[in-house]
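Example 4.3 (complexes with small molecules)
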Amino acid sequence: VEAFLAPKTLRGKKLLITAGPTFEPIDPVRGITNHSSGKMGFAIARAAAEAGAEVTLVAGPVHLPTPRGVQRIDVQSAQQMHDAVLPLAAHQHAFIATAAVADWRPAQAHEHKLKKAEGGATAPTIAMAENPDILAAVAGLPRPPYCVGFAAESEKLAEHADAKRRRKGIPLIVANLGPATFGRDDNALLLIDAQGRRELPEAGGRADKLTLARELIKELSQRLR
Ligand code: CTP
Ligand code: CA
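Answer. The structure with calcium ion bound is encoded below.
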């Protein structure tokens, strides 16, 4: 009912959203990932579609149903997420990066399963390489969409998040205390732009992620007008 009644504040707007963790392979049976559930990103995709936007959701490995009316692209690694996002990004009105992208990947994924050596020899050392920064790459396009970053920080929330916003050259960052929020159904958000800060929910405390997503989409609609 809420979906049907939602004001179509994003009609005619194209939104690209990343969500979930990434999975960086070590060998055919192992890899490095994180505890992002994807719930916040999927809630935002749903809220944006309810508001009438044309939504593309690039998702890392998560177990969540695709929100109604949303075009979903599944990926595994950060590089795959980057390669899915970049060709689409220039055609969007907004880009919302909620994914918990792995900062590093094993420099090479082994073709065959790593085996323990005979006689219990030493444990392998995994050399790492840096992944591309998807959000910074989109923000650096000649005519970038309106870019919204997410920052989960364990301390000095506002300071660290605003430094990140400026470093990536994006107009808006959404800060939350992580990793305490991973997998939960509720959250508390702090929106930070060059002008100042705004808390969601407005009254303080916590709210479920779909409620927060709808508030964020309301805010974004105003910024895109
Ligand atoms: N992000 C991205 N690609 C990456 C890393 C991060 O698109 N390779 C995006 C995230 O989706 C998020 C924002 O950048 O919207 C901030 O991510 P975060 O991990 O907090 O920032 P980093 O720049 O990676 O800094 P650090 O992890 O060292 O705090
Ligand atoms: Ca990071």
